[in-house]
Design a protein that fits this description.
globular; 142 residues; binds thymidine-5'-diphosphate; 1 helix
Length: 142
């Protein structure tokens, strides 16, 4: 699972003078079935979140309101995404280290996830994460 598997997904947007509407269907707009939804909000200025990778979880991250940055890292490279539209979602595949920062005031970060919360699915230590990547790649240099 590489950075190149992660991408911005354009979500449907129904424009209307009364306001826009966006919808997300599991298996159609996102490449997984949605089992869980959570959101980050009331994030204080300067806060950083994330700082972990998931073994098997697929996620879609959407800036529902305001903006923030997501930094993705696959052990060989990093990419920073600035999310500021509620009709763009960032798909994050398993085994990607992610950090979130640069939250604007009033930012709401919505996350759709392919599984229920499971602490054993996390790598919370970056060195352990790199070690696991090396094991997956059969010891080849990352
Ligand atoms: P975590 O995923 O570690 O978020 P971050 O890396 O941004 O700090 O979650 C923070 C805490 O919330 C952690 O104790 C686990 C708990 N949590 C749940 O109980 N259920 C969930 O669905 C999520 C995402 C987190």
């Amino acid at each position: 699972m590489k950075l190149s598997h992660c991408r911005i997904i354009d979500l449907p947007k129904i424009a209307d003078p009364r306001g826009n509407l966006t919808f997300i269907e599991g298996g159609r707009h996102v490449p997984f079935d949605i089992q869980r939804v959570y959101y980050l909000y009331d994030t204080p200025g300067g806060a950083e979140r994330g700082g972990h990778a998931h073994k098997a979880l697929h996620q879609l991250i959407v800036a529902m309101s305001g903006s923030f940055d997501v930094i993705l890292d696959d052990g060989t490279g990093k990419k920073r995404y600035h999310l500021n539209r509620s009709y763009f979602g960032l798909y994050v595949c398993p085994m990607i280290w992610r950090e979130l920062d640069n939250f604007s005031s009033g930012a709401v970060c919505l996350v759709l996830a392919s599984n229920l919360y499971d602490e054993s699915d996390y790598y919370r230590d970056y060195q352990e994460y790199l070690k696991a990547l090396r094991q997956v790649s059969g010891g080849a240099p990352l």
